[in-house]
Amino acid sequence: MPFLSQQGPRRMGYSVRTVLDWAYGGIDHSIPGNGGQECSDFLTIKQRLLETISFVLLGLLVLYFGYKIIARDPKLPSSYDRTDPAMKRVLLIVLCVTFGIEIGFKFVGREVVYLMNPCHIVTIVQIYLLAAPPSKSSSVVFRLCMHWGHGPLLALVFPVLNTRMLPFEQEVYYIQHMMIYYVVPPYLLWLGGAYTIESISDLKWSVVSFGYQCFYHFGPLQLVAFLTQANLNNMLCPAISDPFYGPYYRCWAVLHQAGLILLHNKTYTTVVHGIISLFRGIICLSRKRAKVHGRAEYSNGKLD
User: Fold this and answer.
1) Which residues of 167-186 are buried (b: 16+ CB within 10 A; e: fewer)?
2) CA-CA distance, 100 to 127, in Å (whole number)?
3) Residue 28: left if φ>0, alpha if ψ -120 to 50, beta else—which one?
4) In the beta sheet, which residues pair with residue 274?
5) Which residues have C-beta within 8 Å of that of residue 134, sequence separation ≥ 6?
6) What are phi and psi of 220, to 5 degrees?
7) Which of 129, 189, 246, 260 could form a Cys-Cys staple with 150, CB 3.0–4.6 A?
8) Is pLDDT at 200 greater than 60 in this prediction?
9) How many angstroms separate the most distant Cα atoms in the chain?
10) 3-state percent breakdown (helix, strand, coil) of the chain, nearest 5
11) pLDDT > 70: what percent of the chain?
């Protein structure tokens, strides 16, 4: 039984039991890797505590020293364009509607606790970036968020859909992840200004992003997963398809996530910037040709 049992003592109000039921009452523990007592017991308490203390401390140390280094020379934009493009508002509306539908599915399925999964956190951060005016804060949040893009990519390449039974639930899954990977980040990079990324040789932001991931996964996410027996982002037990399946799968995860944070962000931003430069070059060339053509027509008209 989960520690936060929805059957709890009678003195608990009906509203509290209802909230707990909405949070995790609909999770099917019979699905391998979805949660439950067996999943919760995959690691011994001793190993779980040792890994938690080690990686939470690692995350906090990385955050502390990383922010000290960034504070010396953040290299953020010196000025910000406060204009609000129409396309930015359109993307904000589409992303909010998509995420709102996803939240509705979680309430209907009584799996609200899954909104703590990293891809949903990335969605919330991107909604903030689309809604907030460009500023120093949005620049910092944008740079950190760009280092978490490998999560949506993995979710698209290795989708987990066996628990999505409601009509259009799988379609919304793909729409949400495609928006937060293929649409919103490239558009913000296109805008530039507050939404600029550090140079490819600058690793400070990668280190801080890794610290955030360590602390969030082994701190709040694991705590809620343990109390509810919901396998949030595989913090209780590994996915059945995990190539590092075994008692040390979380240690391996920390290693390969550190590499992905660094390699994916640098590769992704380089490719996107290359596409943006190519697209802008095509637009510029088209405009020049249009001007030359217009002048030629004007000259021919005068001669006639």
Assistant:
1) eebeebbebbbebbbeebbb
2) 11
3) beta
4) none
5) 80, 81, 82, 193, 194, 195
6) -55, -45
7) 260
8) yes
9) 95
10) 70, 0, 30
11) 90
